Each structure stands twice: as C-alpha cells, then as structure tokens.
Amino acid sequence: MQPTSANQAQALRDGTLPEVEEVRPGIYAIALDMPGLRPPYAFSYAILAPGGSRDVHLIDAGLGTDENWEALQQDLGSLDRSIEDVASVTVTHMHHDHLGLAPRIRDASGAVVRLHTREADAIERRATFGVADDPVATLARWGVPESEHEALLATGAMAADSGTEGEANVSIDERLQDGDVLQLGVYEARVIHTPGHTTGHICLAIESEGIVFTGDHVLPGINPGIALGGERSADPLGEYYASLDRLAEFAGAEVLPGHGFRFTTLGERCAEIRAHHETRTREVAEVLAADSESSVWNTASQINWSYGWEALSGVSLLSALSQIEMHIARVRAQS
Ligand SMILES: [Zn+2]
Ligand SMILES: [Zn+2]
User: Number of C-alpha atoms within 13 angstroms, CB side, residue 241?
Assistant: First the structure.
C-alpha cells in the first residue's frame, strides 16, 4: 500500500485537515473535520462538470456540523462553485460522517440524494449497529460486567436509531443497485454493492480513471469495523470477505477512501485487511479452545487490540465487542 498523496498522508500524521486536492481532472478531495474522533476527518469528493455546466456531484458529505457546512461552502467557493450548484450527493453508507450534510445540501440546492436500496431500507427502519432491540439483553449476552453497563448504555450507540440520529428524516431520492452506472460530470461511475461495514455499503468505480471510491469498506491504516449498521446478517464476516473479493478486478486501482489518504494498490490492501481479520478469528479460536464457554467480554479482554484492551471505551468498546461476537460465530460455524 503506497500513499499517492504526500499532502494527505502528512496531514493524517499531523492530525490536521489536508487541503483540497485535485485527484483527477475535475475530481477534488475535500476533507471535512471530525473533531475529537478517530479518524480525524472524512472525505467528500466533488466532481465538477466541465464546459458551461456548473453542476457539482458529491460522493459522501461529511459529518453534519455547522463548522463542516461552512467549510464545504468555502471549499466549493475555492473551486468557483457553490452549494446551490450541487446536483447530486451519492452516499457510500448511512454513517453520520458520510451522510451527515446530505439533507442540508439537498435543502439548499435540490440535489438528488442517492444510497443503496438496502441502506435506504435500514435508515427507514432506523436499524443500526445490529445490536438488537434490547441493549441490556445484548450486554448480558456478551457477558459484560454490570459495572460497565451504565457507561456503555450512556453512549447512546445501542439505541435502535443510533447512527441515523439527525439523519432519520433524510429523503432518499434514488435507490441504487449493484451494477448501476451513474453519470457524474464526464465520468461514468459503476456502483458496486459491498456489504460488510454496513449491509448497504457501496463502492464506486470510475474505470476510465483507474480509481475506486471505497467509503469505509477499504481504508488505509484502519481495519474497518464490520456489521455496524443495517439488517443483521448470519455471517457478516463472510459477507465482508465476499465484498473484498468483489474488488479483485480493481486490484491495481488507486483507492479514494472515506478517511485517511489515497493510495495504491487496492488488491494489496484488501489482502492485508482480510489477513487481519483471519488473525483475529484465530486469536478468538485459541481463547475458545481453552475455554469453550468464554463470553464475548472475556474473549475480547484476551485479544491483542491495536491500542490495548484498557484503552477501549464507549463506542469503540461496543464496536470491539460486536466484532468479537462475529468472530466467535465464525469459529463455532467452522468447528
Ligand atoms: Zn462507516
Ligand atoms: Zn466513516
């Protein structure tokens, strides 16, 4: 995996926002802040129609804060465009940091908002995180000590409508399907349904330019969480692996991710992420081999986390526990 933007890679290291950058003729990466969060910013990609047209097509729309709203207007201004010029917003998946500003942009410009049909369904049902209808029952099933319940429930992330908070009223104008081809300015972008991170996640490939917009399906330096929204799948990991395989035909492509920095080559990164998960499945298998009844909580506490088990709290702890439950399911299914 090789960064193709020194500017973005440096910004990520420094914890700053990278400047607006043209990644292909008329295609710009705009970083929008995620204060206090990790990763620290999300990309919105702006595709400007050439010639007399002022149309702007956005891929993802950043966290929906007032600061980002101002920043996006300023960034479009620097490209001699305005919010009113935005003709469409294609959103890779339902999370705040991608869908956030879409309703506001739609209100201001009449832009068409597009999401995969399964994602649209999930938003309409407000089903997220896959942690069920009863958060307390989920924590009990995971074997989470009662002393931890209050803090975890307080994150609000387990509420049935989490992840769509503030976006629940977004109107989805176009429901996408795998294989759809979108005309974004002069470019044709193919929709690739990549369930895993969420059930209706999509990537977009502009084959003529050798680029793939991967949202949170494939990221540099971060192993994307899986099953973080949408309907619950029996084998989310298996579904995610299949979605990595879907990108095999773009193995040599440059990745324009939802966070971090752009890089080549996609195939190598897919293999790394897969290896990471397979390692985790093996770690979980070892814990279960020693104690077949080990709870999700107990198993998670014995795993080698990037920043250590003790460092996990709040939403990242919930996410970790839900990941471990998935690996346990996979180990049990394989044995
Ligand atoms: Zn996401
Ligand atoms: Zn994201």
Answer: 11
Residues bordering ligand 2, an ion, CB closer than 5 Å = 97, 216, 258
Q: How far is the CA of 134 from the centre of ligand 2 (A)?
A: 25
Phi (first) and psi of residue 104, to 5 degrees: -70, -40
Q: Which ligand is nearest to the CA of 319?
A: 1
What's the pTM? 0.89
- pLDDT tens-digit map of 68-124: 999 999 999 999 999 999 999 999 999 989 999 999 999 999 999 999 999 998 888
Ligand nearest to the CA of 259: 2
Tell me, yes or no, whether 272 lies in a domain. Answer: no
Beta strand extents in the chain (DSSP E only): 2-3, 21-24, 27-33, 41-48, 56-59, 86-90, 112-116, 174-176, 181-184, 187-193, 202-206, 211-215, 254-257, 263-264
* Whether residues 69 and 206 fall in one domain: yes
Distance in Å, CA 129 to ligand 1 centroid: 11
Give me ligand 2 centre to Cα 259, in Å.
7
- Contact call for residues 92 and 203 (beta carbons, < 8 A): yes
Measured from the alpha carbon of residue 198, the closest ligand is: 1
Which is it for the CA torsion 261, 46, 107, 128, positive or negative? negative
Q: How many domains does the chain contain in total? A: 2
Say if residue 17 is in the same domain as residue 104: yes
Which position has the token pair 């400047």? 19
